[in-house]
Amino acid sequence: EEGTAESLLHNVNDNLRKVEEAVNVELSCFAPQAVRCSLKDLVPYNLTEGWSEEAKAEFCSVVGSAAVEMRPLGQDRDSLLVDLRKAPMEQSTDVSFSVREYLVFIEVARFYSPVTLGRRPLMYYPPVYPEASKELNAVVCHINNLSDFYIQLVDNMESLLLSAKLQDCYNALTEDKLRVYCPVIGQACVARFEDELWYRAQVIGHPGGRKVEVRYVDFGNKQIVSVSDLRKIKDEFFALPAMVRAHQNT
Description:
Tudor domain-containing protein, 14 strands, alpha+beta, 4-stranded mixed β-sheet
């Protein structure tokens, strides 16, 4: 223990220096560079236990060492009240997301008051409907009931090529690559189905428990999946319109 203490003291001495008076006067002209901040209106998920280590770890993970967008939202006695947004990094289809909303979504924090600053997510182009009275070959790919079902046109080979390219691309990604942190209702994404394959999807609900409800836009079916089974959609897969056409009897 004595050797450890001496080593620690030696390391401290190696990294501390007295400041000469002339330098000290010069440095006094600079304001402190670090600003104390607090995420506005955010409180621990469990108020009696306070901020958990998981909350801190998730915050550090999502913020990382890269620059983030900061929105000053006010000030209290000793802190700047802010929202931080993770800026898009790679794809033009990326949307920035609020770090506050992410921490609430994964249930390590709660909003003290319902203040959100969300941005409208990018959505798929609508499907192209065939001309009226024209005969076409089609496959019924999903049925909710007799007045609500979905079809794919047999002559459209894009769906087969799209599926193959999706598997090649997303199976080659590492787990954190194109990760979706805070899914937004209406957001275009890629989701893994129960067959372990990847499909284009759209977020339609937040059932809780770090899960989201998605609709697979090329088939019409819906499913609740873990947020870990979502990925950001790359530009090349976003441009194609949804493959299915919804048919409703009136």
